[in-house]
Amino acid sequence: MTVGASATRWIRRAWPALFLGPALAANAATGAAQQPLWELGLGVGALGFADYRGADTGRLYAVPLPYVVYRGRIFRADRDGMRGLLFDADVAELNVSLNATTPVRSGDTLARHGMPDLKPTIEVGPSLDLHVWRSADRHARLDLRLPVRTALTIESSPHAIGWFLAPRLNLDLQDVGGRAGWDLGLLAGPLYGSRRYHDYFYSVAPQFATADRPAYEARGGYSGAETLLSLSKRFPGYWIGAFARYDALRGAAFASSPLVRSNSYWAAGVGIAWMIGQSSRMVDASDEQR
Questions:
Q1: Single pTM value for the model
Q2: What are the percentages of helix, strand and coil residues in the chain, rounded to 5?
Q3: 48, 51, 47, 49: which is closest to 260 by C-alpha?
């Protein structure tokens, strides 16, 4: 079967839902001491975001939305994303942190017209998560997360493009407003990237310079600040969730790049997933509320 060019582009752009799905997934109501080892669901979501941080063009996508929760002792996938638990204590956890960026066709954005396309990337690295505060009823928690990730392009011959640091405070509130099952997440913090990381997205090599796009060599350092808000609820047969993210790029090390056409970045999404299966094995889920 031959896939048309437009369908191919849509599939390539839809793949980040495999990362966003678990990141948006919320746990079941926390009153029960026992929960399934794993839960699976499948649904659909709508995502809207700029082509890259600083772009003045964006896209709205309809994407498949997997719902994945796994409550293992070492590997976990839940409202906090996919992670490997390397170390766990009352005051800290050491996890594996994952992130991804979408591909960008330079022909679709005026700022990058005539330049090489941006390949999708995956970022992976350790994250030290410090438990700053917990409420007595375990319905509120404040963590300081310190992820450091190495970024790689996703292509036939992957290339390392530097590292990215994203320290942030993360506040989780459960049963918001006294409404059982509604979970609210608030996240905020500065971002930092290496010279190679910023170079991949924001440098302009001399051969691609034009009258409106002078040559530019990006520097490493401050990469802006992000704020993210999420809201979700797990019903008996389905899950719903939404998020909104705002990044302030003013003062970033690459702010003077001719590829930066906006000093802010917005992203938002909404989704629904229907449950298709769960484990018959139950596990103690109290650790998730620590």
A1: 0.81
A2: 15, 50, 35
A3: 51
229-256 pLDDT, tens per residue? 999 998 999 999 999 999 999 999 999 9
Residue 187 has pLDDT above 70, yes or no: yes
Pairwise CA distance, residues 99 & 85, whole Å:
16
How many residues are given for the chain?
Answer: 290
Which parts of 102-157 are beta strand (E)?
A: 121-134, 140-153
Place of tokens 């979501």: 45
Instruction: Look at the block and give the residue holding tokens 């320290």.
Output: 167
Estimate to the nearest angstrom the gap between the alpha carbon of 15 and the chain centroid: 13
Domain 5-289: assigned CATH number: 2.40.230
HSE (CB half, 13 Å, CA atoms) of 86? 10
Measured distance CA(161)–CA(158) in Å, rounded? 9
pLDDT tens, 101-160?
989 999 999 999 999 999 999 999 999 999 999 999 889 999 999 999 999 999 999 999
pLDDT band of 284, cuts 50, 70, 90: confident
What letters, b where the CB count within 10 A reaches 16 and e where it falls short, cover 103-116?
A: bbebeebebbeebe
The alpha helices in the chain, defined as continuous H runs, are 5-14, 17-24, 195-202
